[in-house]
Each structure stands twice: as C-alpha cells, then as structure tokens.
Automatic annotation (TrEMBL):
InterPro entries tied to this protein: DegT/StrS_aminotransferase, PyrdxlP-dep_Trfase, PyrdxlP-dep_Trfase_major, PyrdxlP-dep_Trfase_small
A GO biological process held by the record: polysaccharide biosynthetic process
Active-site feature positions: K188
Entry protein name: Aminotransferase, DegT/DnrJ/EryC1/StrS family
Stored Gene3D superfamilies: Aspartate Aminotransferase, domain 1, Type I PLP-dependent aspartate aminotransferase-like (Major domain)
Modified residues (N6-(pyridoxal phosphate)lysine): K188
Family label: Belongs to the DegT/DnrJ/EryC1 family.
SUPFAM superfamilies per the UniProt record, alphabetical: PLP-dependent transferases
Keywords: Aminotransferase, Pyridoxal phosphate, Transferase
Length: 392
C-alpha cells in the first residue's frame, strides 16, 4: 500500500482551548479581580478533590510547587534529596535552589521511573526525602518507595507534572506521598497556560506552602485580596523567607473549565495509546509497558526504537517523521548528561546507563486530544512507514 504523508504538519502537543475557556477568561477579566482570588480558591478545591487530597496550593508552575514543598520541609544546605536523572531539569533545579544536593538513582528500564531497588544504596545520613517522578503519566512503584521512606523517616514529594488523574492501585496521585505537585503547563493533560499545584492532606504543610508561595506573608491570600477594599488593613507580617509564585485568577479560570473536561481528555488519551499499541505491535519497536498497579494518565506515549533492528538512529527517525509532517519530542535528556550537572556535580556519561539507553531510543508521539483521532491514526501510519523503511 502506498504511503502519503499528512498534508499539513501535525504538531507534538497543541493545547485544547475552546469557547468555554474564552468565556471564562473574559468573565475573570471583567470581574475586577485578576490575580489570586476566588477562582484560584475554587480551582484549588476542585483539583485537590480530584486528587483525593484535602488541600491544594496553586502556584505559577509545577517547578514552584516543588520549590515551596521543599521549603516547607525546611530542605537546605547540607541536605540530600533522592530523585531520578530521567526527568525535566526543574526536579533537580529546585533541590539545588534550596542549597541541597540532588542524588540521582537510575531508572527501571520498563517504566522509565526511579528503580526502588536502587534507592536504599543512595541513602546517607544527609538524606531528607525522595522525589519520585511519575514519567509520562505512569505512577512509580509507590508501595516500595513509601516503605523505604517510612523505614528511613524521609519525606516523599512527588513530581506529578505528568500524572494528574493517574492512579496507583486505584488510588489517585495526591493520596500517595506527603505532597504531589502537578503541572498545568501548555502541553499538559489539563492546562492553565502556565500553572502548577501542590496537593496534600496535611493542613500544616498546606498552610506553610501557601505562606511560602506569597512572600512568606502570614495569611497572604486573604490579606492581599482584602488589601485594597474597605475591609482592608495596611498591616501584615512576614513570617518566613518566601517566594512569589502564586497562580492568577486568569489562569485558574482556564483550569476550572479544563477540569470539567478532564474525563473526556483522559478517555481520548487512553484511546490514542490503544491506537498506537495496535499499530506498532509487529514493528521493531517497544510500546510502553504499563505496570499492574498503574492507572496511566497517558501524558506521553514514549515509544522505544529497537535500534539493533533498525538502520536509522533515533534522531534520524525523528527527522524522517518531521519530513513526513509529524512532530515529536524526546523526554528526557538524562540530567547528568548536561554540562551544568557535569561541571558542578562531577557527573559523567555512563553514570546512569539505563537512563542513557532509554534516552538513545525514545521518541514521544503526539497525544493531545486537540489533534483528533484522524491525525493520531496518520501519526501511527507515518511511524510504521518510517520504521519499516528503516528496518534491517
Ligand atoms: C517531569 C517534569 N517535572 C516538572 C516539570 C515542570 O513543570 P512546570 O513547567 O509547570 O514548572 C515538567 C515540565 O514539563 C516535567 O516534565
């Protein structure tokens, strides 16, 4: 059968924004309150409820949510926090910004997630906590991770940037570790353009994160909202050295609409993963492994090329796909391969071989419901064409 490329470029991850988002955004703009206010509060409550947590602290980004979570645990110079090299820079950056040291542990070759069997060997008297990253929307092996954390008295802050809506043995991410941090960046399963949230069921921790997300001012959200009204007060106290990373009501307006569409978004992503799984069954590739405990949020579809059965490199496959009008992405360059981490922390190529092997083979395919099933089927056909062409 002859192959025809898509007539127009299929982007990797366009956001799905429609008239409802436009309407709510306009309402927020016209409400007279555009920064952190009632819409943020409503978005926090609704998001925490979906995640099974009692508190949500909305921030400018997931990066900021992780930063205030680490600050709330008092992480600082001399401390170590265990995480994975197979993540986005921000997981390690926030640890470094607290003056602490990220300690990397290699990943499980099937799931791309931190390998619990290797964690205990990385624990030292300086270890304060573990930051597992739920790669692609698939939860880590949290039973094993939480057992290790309990044994050693460590906190668990989950980088759940990819995993809003994901579950572990039926329990939502948000009910597992001490804090889970979500991202609502433009490409994420639900988006507020930029945005993040730390959810927890620990009221004290939530209050600390809330204060830290707004300059360290006591009751900042309440005081600030009343500040220029008749009920306002000119006095406030700064309790902690905080940050300024609050979410705005404009972003929350988008988030509230996206939350209402969450089930449809999740169903579309699941069906796209099934289309890919079926289309690639007989190709020299490995489709994503779903662990028995994982309810996958399918933020990413990380396809692994069986490079010993294909004459093209991963980068050549990506180039061919681009020539055929298919956009892809690669998540992630393992952090220890970046010059900053090598220069400042002494890492070298070869330090985390599983992560490096996965990186050399992975291609993430389009998954956004904004693309629609027809284009996803075209992506599947194009990948099959390119990989078959390159098969040895
Ligand atoms: C695993 C992971 N953690 C954290 C982040 C940071 O999210 P944000 O852009 O909301 O700060 C990302 C962003 O893509 C990510 O992929």
């Amino acid at each position: 059968m002859s192959f025809t490329p898509a007539s127009a470029f299929i982007p990797f991850s366009p956001p799905q924004i429609g008239p409802e988002e436009e309407h709510e955004l306009l309402e927020a703009l016209r409400s007279g309150w555009i920064t952190t206010g009632p819409r943020v509060r409503a978005f926090e409550a609704a998001t925490a409820a979906v995640a099974g947590a009692t508190h949500g602290v909305a921030t400018f980004s997931c990066t900021d949510a992780m930063l205030v979570a680490l600050a709330a645990f008092g992480v600082g110079p001399g401390d170590e926090v265990i995480t994975t090299p197979y993540t986005f820079i921000s997981t390690a950056q926030v640890i470094l910004h607290r003056g602490a040291r990220p300690v990397f542990v290699d990943v499980d070759p099937r799931t791309f997630n931190i390998d619990p069997a290797r964690i205990e060997a990385a624990i030292t008297p300086r270890t304060r906590g573990i930051m597992p990253v739920h790669f692609a929307g698939q939860v880590c092996d949290m039973d094993a991770i939480l057992a290790i954390a309990r044994r050693h008295g460590l906190f668990v802050i989950e980088d759940a940037a990819h995993a809003f809506g994901a579950t572990h043995n039926g329990h939502p991410v948000g009910t597992l570790g001490d804090v889970a941090c979500f991202s609502f960046y433009a490409t994420k399963n639900i988006t507020t353009a930029e945005g993040g949230m730390a959810v927890t069921s620990d009221a004290d921790l939530a209050q600390r994160m809330r204060v830290l997300s707004m300059y360290g001012i006591s009751d900042a959200r309440e005081i600030w909202q009343k500040r220029y009204t008749r009920a306002g007060n000119i006095h406030y106290d700064v309790q902690e050295l905080g940050y300024k990373c609050n979410m705005t009501d404009l972003c929350a307006a988008l988030g509230l609409v996206q939350l209402r569409r969450m089930d449809a978004i999740a169903a579309a992503r699941r069906s796209y993963a099934a289309i890919y799984d079926e289309a690639f069954a007989d190709l020299p590739v490995t489709t994503p492994h779903v662990a028995p405990y994982a309810g996958h949020a399918w933020h990413l579809y990380p396809l692994r090329l069986d490079l010993d059965r294909i004459s093209l490199s991963r980068d050549e496959v990506i180039l061919r796909l681009k020539e055929c009008n298919v956009g892809t992405s690669v998540m992630f360059t393992p952090l220890h391969l970046f010059s900053y981490f090598q220069r400042e922390m002494g890492f070298n190529e070869g330090d985390f071989p599983v992560a490096e092997d996965l990186f050399s083979r992975v291609v993430c395919l389009p998954m956004s419901p904004a693309l629609g099933e027809e284009r996803i089927r075209k992506v599947a056909e194009t990948v099959a064409h390119v990989v078959t062409e390159g098969a040895r």
